[in-house]
Amino acid sequence: MASTNTFLQHTNWVLNAINEPVLTSSNFSSAVGIQLEAQNAVNSTIRDIIDGELEWPFNRTTYSETLTPGTQIYTLQTFRSVDWDSFYVRPIDEITNGAFTSNINNWTDKSAGTGSIAYTSTGNGRMRLTGDGTNGGSAEQAITTVANRAYKLQFRHLTNDVTVKIGTTSAGTEISSTIITLDNAGEGEIQDIDFTASGTSTYIGFANTSTTVCDIDYVKVKENRSPQHLVNTSFDEWRRLYRDNDETLSATFMGYPNKVFRTQNDEYGLSRVPLQANWEVTYDYWTSPSDLSVHSSTTVIDDRWSWLIVEGAKRYVYETLSDPAFHDRAVQKFNAGLKRMRIELINKEDVMNPHINYSAWI
Q1: Which uninterrupted H or E stretch holds 17?
Q2: What's the CA gap between 107 and 213, in Å, rounded?
Q3: Is residue 29 a contact partner of residue 320, using CB atoms and an 8 Å limit?
């Protein structure tokens, strides 16, 4: 969890500790002297903490990149470290705004009569369909598909039954039309519908004719293909074992990637070379956050470690003030706190060596 304590608060805690006047939001940007030194000390300490470990959990970020058919090499995000065991490939979600986190944008209202669709913030956001007893509250979205390719529609609905329409035209049912009953009223159900696209555009629609609302919690449509972990292989191994096939100009050797390798230029390569455009690769990496700049800036380091930032900042301030005793004391507290932080946030699991008879030690 990122901090809610601000740059101003951290700076003032340092100033309080050394009995100096504190800053306000109005004079923070014009600070000089020891107040400016306290600001710089806070940023320097945050950098010290970040540099204290390569893979702090609060610096971990997940990135997704849509693949390009025939393109094997991709540029990595700016990183301190990359988790090469985290790479995997999966079909992209063809639906836009299927989570309804803040609105129902990208969905077209196809309601009839006094039926309606609306956004509700219930359950972190849902699309609500309300009929008038005869006509339906109805919504649809057109997605890009490939003819004769198999897809899977998944959605979660609550409160009432819903009619699901899949067609090649707006409000059409050329592919399917299914009434999905809700058996677990009050809890909601997750439903899967498999279909094969027959054109480049497919319309996904939901309708409810009942005056009792039906809430759609989320909607996803992906190619009916399982995600796949990418095996991390070295650049040398790729050149020795897989390069010949990957660089052969033949679609026969292309397909769903199953390996990832790091190049010599902060890039990653995929083997096999991607054959389709509706796949994406995701991976985790660790970043270096920017310095705090304005009074309201917050750090990625959790609030419970704010005291460590203050202790570390006091090292720099006491050095400027030529106070070696307090400087050394702050150094000891900071180093002990950083050690504790490593134990709590990066506690490595003990791995037992299978070749050692541990029972003999008892």
Answers
A1: helix 7-17
A2: 17
A3: no
The 3-state DSSP class for residue 207 equals: strand
Q: How far is CA 294 from CA 34, 82, 126, 291, in A?
A: 17, 30, 36, 10
Residue 272, preceding peptide bond in cis (omega within 30° of 0): yes
pLDDT in tens, 120-167: 999 999 999 999 999 999 999 999 999 999 999 999 999 999 999 999
Q: Give the single-character DSSP code of 253.
A: G
Q: Which letter does DSSP use for residue 274 in this model?
A: B
Specify whether the backbone of 339 is left (phi greater than 0), alpha (psi in -120 to 50) or beta. alpha
Query: How far is the C-alpha of 61 from the C-alpha of 2, rounded, in Å?
Result: 13
Torsion of CA 247, 248, 252, 255, to 10 degrees: 0
- Name, in order, each residue with C-beta under 8 angstroms of 9's C-beta and a sequence gap of 6 or more: 306
The pTM of this model reads: 0.83
**8 Å CB contact between 223 and 194:** no
